[in-house]
């Protein structure tokens, strides 16, 4: 009977988790995060509602695994490249030069932590808790799982303010998770456990280097396919090992799971593997966890105690104040609405608050009512934060989609190319030294060429050459081209293309993600192809059969299968590049933000598709 009851409860929870996305879509509840809807559904079928589900071994185990996997994916969501200190200066809509994003984000989070601590002292004075540091962690946490999709939906993820908001959330997620683990280690009754955390981090470092070594071996790629799926096996092994070590040294299992996610993120996994992990986590385990959070939440008990009823709005106000006050420092560079919108979005908090509430209740820092109040406030913040953000945050200014292209070296290759590029797509500037001979009559009639005294880095910086979106370097000297390309990449130029004839230098630059071309090898390859496969060469040499690249940036079509795309005309999608992966498209292939589509077709048709996907 117990087994039957267990299966019945599991069936109800799984069916509810399956139906939630359909309900949100049917009633157009786009403002409500799916995880929040899952908790609300759990409340409806749990002890605060119809009481259809009771916790048992099956659900407890799957819920725990879901919690662990949620913490793993939270670590995986952290893109450590955002900490790269780009030297490229971006001019903001206000006309000011943007600040150092990493520095400003650290300052904002530090202020969030200080304000949160001050507010925590108020809760101690009022008798809700006797541990100010624990309350500080609760108030200062920010949910990456809510911030990231909201920024993507608003189409400002790649903007200066979007990256700053993201960095604050990443720093908050990392800091509060680590501090929570240290706090639990110090307050769980096991003295001397603190130094044992070093074992966990040491194991993490060792596993990182092992992963970095093995992922480059050729046989690993072969084992990543078919029934072996070695990459997925390695990830789950990493999670279980670090969770096991975490519990062995007296820390919470969530720290081991979070560390596993961070390590996988540092190893830069391919997009396909990340999608598999997301699908498994958010498609099965994590929904069970969130539904069970709602099932076990006793809402009615909160109304029995007037003191707790007062606590809920106080906590909500504390969350807003702790974020809105610190972001005022951004007012120096951004307008009031942008600053306010940023603070409101950073108010969103969920998974870590749920984790802290459960841990706090278990180690007797807070009682069950306080824990329920925390979870309820977290749910409310995840509803209000994104809604208010969308209402207040100014929409990104419509700007020209023409990319700034800077060409270093005016010669018989680069000059004709500058004329053939569509001005609507590329704003081209050409730079060359005074010593180089350029036909002055042709230059004055067709080209806008800026003369430089030399190709030194300082001279190029003064001319703002590195501020271009695309930098093409084609002087006559490989060493010069290489030096400029390396500096441009470090400076933060989005794309760097360098003409290199020496194979050794070319290989070094490719390691730095710099695109390389060679006049000699390109000509040789084209001539060989013309002999062996003339039909293929015609694609490149005849304008009506040209290949084009279209960047997918429109969130409206994110996840849309190609067969459902509203317009292709006579455009044929030849290949889709997603991160480092090359995908042969078919009707069920879904478009993703950041995809680079290689297409062929008539100019008008291609331009139409480009317009649809660019916004």
Description:
This is CPA2 family monovalent cation:H+ antiporter-2. Keywords: Antiport, Ion transport, Membrane, Transmembrane, Transmembrane helix, Transport. With 615 residues, the chain is α/β, with parallel strands linked by helices. Helices cover 58% and strands 8% of the residues. The strands form two sheets. Strands 3-2-1-4-5-6 form a six-stranded parallel sheet, sandwiched between helices. α10 runs antiparallel to α11 (253-266). The chain is globular, with a radius of gyration of 28 Å. 37% of the residues are buried.
Which structural category fits the helices and strands? alpha/beta
Q: How are the strands ordered across the major sheet?
A: 3-2-1-4-5-6
Helix percentage:
55-70%
Rounded mean pLDDT is: 80
Identify low-pLDDT runs: 1-5, 436-445
Count of beta strands: 10
Features of the shown structure:
four-stranded antiparallel β-sheet; Cation/H_exchanger_TM; alpha/beta; disordered N terminus; globular; single chain; transport; ion transport; antiport; six-stranded parallel β-sheet; 615 residues
């Amino acid at each position: 009977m117990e087994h039957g009851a267990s299966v019945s409860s599991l069936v109800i929870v799984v069916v509810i988790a399956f139906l939630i996305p359909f309900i949100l879509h049917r009633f157009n509840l786009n403002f409500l995060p799916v995880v929040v809807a899952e908790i609300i559904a759990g409340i409806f079928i749990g002890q605060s509602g119809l009481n259809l589900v009771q916790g048992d071994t099956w659900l407890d185990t799957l819920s725990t695994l879901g919690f662990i996997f949620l913490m793993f994916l939270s670590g995986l969501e952290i893109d450590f490249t955002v900490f790269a200190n780009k030297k490229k200066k971006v001019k903001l809509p206000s006309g000011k030069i943007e600040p150092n994003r990493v520095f400003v984000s650290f300052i904002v989070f530090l202020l969030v932590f200080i304000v949160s601590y001050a507010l925590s002292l108020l809760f101690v004075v009022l008798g809700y808790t006797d541990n100010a540091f624990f309350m500080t962690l609760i108030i200062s946490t920010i949910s990456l799982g809510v911030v990231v999709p909201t920024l993507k939906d608003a189409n400002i993820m790649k903007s200066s303010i979007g990256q700053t908001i993201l960095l604050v959330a990443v720093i908050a997620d990392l800091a509060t998770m680590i501090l929570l683990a240290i706090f639990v280690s110090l307050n769980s009754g096991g003295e001397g456990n603190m130094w044992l955390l070093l074992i966990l981090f040491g194991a993490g470092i060792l596993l990182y280097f092992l992963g970095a070594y093995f992922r480059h071996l050729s046989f690993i790629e072969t084992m990543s396919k078919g029934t072996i799926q070695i990459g997925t096996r390695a990830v789950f092994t990493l999670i279980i090992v670090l969770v096991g070590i975490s519990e062995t040294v007296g820390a919470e299992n969530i720290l081991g799971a979070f560390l596993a996610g961070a390590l996988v993120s540092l190893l830069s996994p391919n997009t396909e593997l990340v999608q598999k992990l997301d699908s498994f986590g958010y498609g099965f385990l994590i929904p069970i966890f969130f539904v069970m959070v709602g099932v076990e939440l006793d809402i009615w008990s909160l109304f029995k105690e007037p003191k707790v009823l007062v606590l809920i709005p106080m906590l909500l106000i504390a969350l807003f104040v702790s974020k809105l006050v610190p972001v005022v420092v951004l007012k120096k560079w951004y307008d009031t609405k942008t600053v306010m919108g940023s603070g409101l979005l950073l108010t969103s908090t969920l998974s870590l608050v749920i984790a802290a509430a459960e841990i706090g209740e278990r180690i007797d820092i807070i009682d069950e009512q306080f824990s329920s109040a925390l979870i309820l406030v977290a749910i409310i913040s995840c509803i209000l934060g994104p809604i208010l953000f969308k209402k207040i945050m100014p929409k990104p200014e419509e700007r020209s989609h023409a990319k700034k292209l800077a060409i270093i070296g005016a010669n018989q290759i680069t000059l004709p190319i500058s004329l053939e590029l569509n001005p609507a797509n590329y704003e081209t500037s050409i730079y060359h030294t005074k010593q180089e001979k350029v036909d002055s009559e042709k230059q004055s009639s067709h080209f806008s060429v800026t003369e430089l005294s030399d190709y030194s880095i300082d001279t190029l910086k003064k001319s703002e050459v590195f501020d271009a979106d695309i930098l093409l370097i084609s002087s006559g000297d490989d060493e010069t081209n290489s030096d400029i390309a390396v500096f441009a990449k470090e400076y933060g130029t989005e794309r760097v293309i360098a003409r290199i004839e020496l194979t050794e230098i070319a290989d070094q630059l490719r390691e730095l993600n710099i695109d390389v071309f060679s006049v000699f090898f390109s000509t040789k390859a084209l001539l060989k192809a013309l002999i062996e496969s003339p039909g293929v060469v015609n694609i490149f040499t005849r304008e009506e059969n040209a290949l084009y690249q279209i960047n997918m940036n429109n969130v409206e079509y994110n996840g849309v299968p190609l067969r459902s795309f509203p317009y292709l005309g006579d455009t044929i999608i030849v290949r889709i590049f997603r991160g480092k992966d090359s995908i042969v498209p078919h009707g069920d292939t879904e478009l993703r933000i950041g995809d680079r589509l290689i297409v062929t077709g008539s100019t008008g048709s291609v331009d139409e598709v480009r317009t649809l996907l660019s916004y």
